[in-house]
Amino acid sequence: MENHLQTKDWGLGLNGHLIIAGPCSAETPEQIEKVCLDMKKENMIPHLFRAGIWKPRTRPGSFEGIGEEGLTWMEIVRNHLNIPITTEVGNAAHVELALKHKVDVLWIGARTTVNPFAVQEIADALKGVDIPVMVKNPMNPDLQLWLGALERLQTVGINKLAAIHRGFSDSYDKRFRNKPNWSMPIHLKREWKGMEVINDPSHIVGNRAGILETAQRAINFGLDGLMIETHHDPDNAWSDAKQQVTPAALKQILSKIDFRETAGSENPGERLNDLRTAVDHLDDQLLDLLQERFSMIDQIGAYKRENHLTVFQSDRWKYVMESRTQKGVKKNLSEKFMKELLYCIHEESVKRQEKQLREADPVKR
Ligand SMILES: C=C(O[C@@H]1C=C(C(=O)O)C=C[C@H]1O)C(=O)O
């Protein structure tokens, strides 16, 4: 993946774990002012002020955002807090208005990220514009869509990029408003080196009580910041009333979080270095063992070819799966991990053996 500029290099004075706060929606100039004043009173000034101007709602009829007028109120934020502001854009018209009103950072919402046509429209509207853009994960846990949206922006020349992890729609799991699926942001960071991912616990949990726990987990996993919806009077907010917190509550939450640092690869510390060296040796041994196992698998494959046996042997596979899973669980490895690992190994075994059969006895035409 191509290089891009990280938040610290966006020219907005951002550094460390990024904190983005502000109301779900801009409602009135008074509301914006009150949120700012409460932030000031609590000395709880975020790095970026967020406010939704256009709200993609599931069904029509609820508050769909105040529209362009709300952008003029962002001056209030600048006057009181002197911090950059960010808002969501969902189409080219939104982009044009956000640029006209000098919004500092744009974000693309989950419902837009799922649609490559919409993302491309936004990207095209941003051609030649130097503005940072954050891309929320798509509604469904599809890493390629998430990466694709970031790539579309990069292709038109946007190089100030970040991602936002807001969780994934899952109507069966009632514990979350949007299930976190932590492997997704971690995969994204693995695939796109240096891509910062900001966690949005407000949309993941959907209520005030769970925000701290989810935010702490995000930091534990190594995510790079938090976006938390903040309102002076959350109960009476026009949207997302249940999940917004007051600036005072936000301050409390942030004071309880243990902000962990990523250990840089240049100078990780002696103890960590020793442990990592031990892991390097163990991984070498694992690879030697795997190589040996697959050489046995190949010998079994040769036997199957000579004796006209099928590659997949369900009784043997059932035995391997169950016995190894049991042993693994006794060694404190999770059942889920054991099953995934064994599926992966088995898939490789049968593919290798099938290839042996295919190469030895090509299909007669
Ligand atoms: C190796 C074999 O072939 C396949 C691969 C297995 C494995 O990886 O352990 C088990 C059963 C078969 O589906 C075998 O038949 O023993």
Automatic annotation (TrEMBL):
Q: Which Gene3D superfamilies does its entry note?
A: Aldolase class I (3.20.20.70), Chorismate mutase (1.20.59.10)
Please give the name of this protein: chorismate mutase
Annotated keywords: Transferase
Instruction: Tell me its EC number(s), please.
Output: 5.4.99.5
SMART domains with a match to the protein in the record: CM_2
Q: Where is the Chorismate mutase domain?
A: 266-357
Matching SUPFAM superfamilies, A to Z? Aldolase, Chorismate mutase II
Keyword Cell inner membrane, does the record have it? no
Q: Extract the coiled-coil ranges from the record.
A: none
Q: A GO biological process this protein is involved in?
A: chorismate metabolic process
Keyword check for Transport, yes or no. Answer: no
Gene Ontology molecular function: chorismate mutase activity; transferase activity
